Amino acid sequence: MMTTGSADEPPRMSDVEPAPFPHFLWIWNTLNNTGTPAHHRRIARWLDVKRSSNETRLLLMCFRGAGKSTVVGLYCAWLLATDPALRLIVLSAETTLASKMVRSVRQIIRRHPLCRHIRPRGPSEWAADRFTVHRPGAGRDPSMLARGITANITGSRADVVIVDDVEVPNTSDTATEREELRERLAEIEFVLVPGGTTLFIGTPHTEDSIYADAGRDGAEPYLAGFARLRIPLLDGGGNSAWPDRFTPATIAAMQRRVGPRAFGAQMQLEPQPPQDARLDPQAMVRYDGELTLHAGNGGMVLRLGETQLVSASCFWDPAFGAPDKGDHSVLAAVFTDAEGNHYLHRVAYMTHDPKGGDDAATQLCRQVAMVARELHLPSVTVENNGIGRFLPGLLRAEMARARVPCAVVERASTRGKTERILGAIEPVLAARRLWVHRAVLAGKFAAEMREWRPGPSSKGAHDDALDAVAGCLLAEPVRLPRAMAAERSGWRGGGGAYGAETGFTP
After folding, report:
1. pTM score
2. Do strands 285-287 and 291-296 pair parallel, antiparallel, or not at all (unpaired)?
3. Does 492 have pLDDT greater than 50?
4. What domains are there in the chain, each with its CATH number?
5. What is the pLDDT of residue 502?
């Protein structure tokens, strides 16, 4: 343990005898009047044993919200308390995330009684993304450094590299992003000193995860040879790894909210292959109500039957192919109530007339403006990838010409279409919060959902409406009362309700 010496003077390094990491963790939690969950004790024992046995390639996989980064931050402080000459680098998906761990370790060193001997003697040794403890001799590299995975770490040297949650949607959604992530991680071998330790911590976001137990097509897994500790939220008997925080009711609500695929990947550490995914039209809830616009309370209120709507989102996935050929140009409109239910009120498959006089883009923009007026939409989001790059300006001109008070928002799609569709639609289907108008169900949308298969097996099948609906669900919804106040002047004065019939003919 530690000889404390006088109250004003920290002990000399020669007076310090390292404590086991589980003991270090227990002291910290006791100091902060918090308990130590069973899975935290398990992680601490595992890290302590691996350090004692000189195992230097480690992978910790734990469910989201488990506090694994908190435990690893304490581990970093313990490593420095045990050997102040160590140099640690934290790599995360973004520098801000890595800096968060560095700040946490810095606070631990300031307050933990077993870190008194390594506290810096002056404030100049502390910075937002790095710090240097009191250590023998002088070194060029700080004791701990934070970096994002895309940052340049060439020239740095480290005895320990903590790779904390580098696999996130922004680094793993597409095959190109996954390959780039692997290329970035290869730089660790040139930074790590011989005999140094690499500790990966994270949760999988894709079937082709860097954390996978097996590689694709029989290839070796990316982290082959790494010692692994895997802690899912639920064990084989359905028992929670952290019952005080993740109760059965909490877990059930999460499963409804995020859907089975996201729960399997993030909480059970078992990402499902996308080709096994299915979207069940039977999980949609049918409704027959129509939109009515009411004036009152100093503004406009939009209702769907007796339900007041609080927000709306509309997404246009454009295409200019000849009618009934190639991709469809699809507009989808979704409204939301205060309970979080989503109402898919319109899926419009738009076409143009090659002999109609105006060009295809103008015809389509004019149709979008008509739908925006009919549904009282506050905004329309346009996917501006490829051919849609020039459409937002043209659509704004058509909105102004038709005197429709609807904003036009541009958005580029960066996620793969399969992940976009599954990530947006599957959770609301699983929670039975996707309500669909009878006219939408009478159209091609339900058949498109039923026939959709991720990957090459869906080649030739249309998914344009699914993509447009996913765009609605992923877009930031616009609150209706404030956005619709601009329409107030277009209505006659006085109280009462004004109905706007927006039904379809099935």
Report:
1. 0.69
2. unpaired
3. no
4. 22-228 (3.40.50.300), 232-272 (no CATH), 276-498 (3.30.420.240)
5. 41
